[in-house]
Design brief:
This protein has about 425 residues and is of the alpha/beta class. Helices cover about 25% and strands about 25% of the residues.
Length: about 425
């Protein structure tokens, strides 16, 4: 596999765009993160901050937000024993790492954040000894020792440029030589500065209207340093020798990492991802995280399914969650990325052994992905038929554009009897 030290950002000089892309600050009055600390309250985390609806629904024990699941997928590059979760927020990543057996240091300067992060462990207090919560500024928190992995999920846009220099230098100091620093930030400043105005013009031409300011109330308050990929790349390289930066979106996190992009397409991606290390990065391995090829039959047959919850009664048309545990004993990682995503789905049979009443059920992504030789639970979204009656719900894996893996002769189908009222 090809090893490269850093991504080469496009040469914007040939487009005459140097000045257009030069500035990264959003012009907000706050000069550093301490100026907006008071706004990081419980309401922000549970009513506005991305992924709050899933957090409220699953109490932090199920992670579906693409920005978080993508970082978890990136983290699978390292078999980390010690993890540093910077700006841990509600604690979904902290919980995931602790559940995977890692020793986690979770840092945030918001009391509400730390309280919510601790609540992720309600009912699973045995995991808490694996976690050290630090109510502190990430730039000065009392961290010690060496880490295999550091993550910053939607943190850096909340820190001033000087604070970022301090943070990146600290992460580099406390990261092992082969350690990985994984970053997600929203928005890609180019998206708001250049793509959004284009969308407004196109909407106006259709007789429609988009708001002048696309940012939410909290974004206007808290995003004191929205990032461009070129500036983030440059700033990370002050602390790390090997840096990879790319642009993506919720449904295509691989984005510009997987395809050649012109300036307009780069500006259309809303998210920025970055991986940094003191050691060379295997870019092909990172790319492979965001692609799912047509898998051999043996890869899917290495996965077993088990229901961990029940749905004895549902109302017609109701959507509910069914917890399903997947165990992958094979050597192939299963993911829900294009071109042939592997997902969970189901069929409804009118009665046990009867005809299929609903052939195509809702899809549930494997988010995060299911690594080789690992197990993980997923919350499947199940929608009941519109006609009342006794049904058999059959859940299985589907590889899109390949086949349903619901062979009744193979132990890969979860069958549950359900009464629909």
């Amino acid at each position: 596999m090809k090893i490269v030290s850093a991504v080469q950002m496009p040469d914007f000089s040939r487009f005459g765009y140097e000045a257009m892309f030069a500035r990264t600050a959003t012009g907000h009055q706050a000069k550093e993160s301490g100026d907006v600390r008071e706004h990081y309250d419980r309401h922000y985390y549970t009513a506005d901050c991305g992924g709050f609806d899933d957090f409220n629904r699953f109490r932090g024990k199920v992670t579906r937000d693409p920005r978080l699941t993508t970082l978890l997928d990136i983290s699978s590059l390292k078999h980390a024993k010690r993890v540093l979760d910077l700006g841990c927020g509600r604690g979904e990543l902290t919980y995931e790492f602790a559940k995977a057996g890692c020793e986690v240091t979770a840092v945030d300067y918001s009391e509400s954040s730390i309280e919510l992060a601790r609540s992720c462990f309600d009912g699973e207090e045995s995991l808490l000894p694996k976690v050290k919560f630090l109510l502190a500024d990430v730039c000065s928190a009392p961290i010690h020792g060496q880490y295999d992995l550091a993550v910053a999920a939607d943190l850096i846009e909340h820190l001033a440029p000087a604070e970022l220099d301090t943070l990146f230098a600290r992460v580099s100091r406390y990261l092992r030589d082969a350690g990985v620093f994984a970053v997600h930030t929203f928005p890609n400043l180019w998206f708001y500065k250049h793509d959004y105005p284009r969308r407004r013009r196109e909407a106006a031409a259709r007789g429609e209207a988009l708001p002048t300011e696309p940012r939410s109330h909290y974004e206007r308050l808290m995003h004191i340093n929205e990032q461009s990929p070129a500036v983030l790349n440059k700033q990370l390289r002050r602390a790390f020798k090997h840096v990879l930066v790319w642009l993506g979106g919720p449904s295509v996190p691989g984005g510009s990492l997987l395809q050649k992009c012109g300036v307009q397409k780069l500006c259309a991606f809303p998210d920025i991802y970055a991986v940094a290390s003191k050691s060379p990065l295997d870019v092909e391995a990172i790319r492979s995280l965001f692609q799912t090829a047509r898998l051999p039959e043996s890869a899917i047959r290495s996965v077993t399914l088990e229901a961990r919850s029940a749905l004895p009664v549902m109302r017609r048309g109701q959507t509910a969650s069914l917890e399903v545990a997947l165990s992958n004993t094979g050597d192939v990682r299963l993911s829900s990325y294009p071109p042939h995503p592997v997902q969970l789905s189901y069929r409804w049979h009118a009665k046990p052994g009867g005809e299929i009443a609903v052939k195509e059920g809702l899809r549930t992504r494997l988010s995060p992905s299911l690594d080789a030789h690992s197990s993980r639970s997923y919350a499947m979204d199940i929608q009941a038929p519109e006609v009342p009656g006794h049904y058999l719900l059959s859940c299985c894996l589907v590889q899109e554009f390949v086949r349903w893996h619901d062979d009744p002769q193979v132990d890969q189908v979860v069958n549950i009897r359900v009464m629909v009222e």
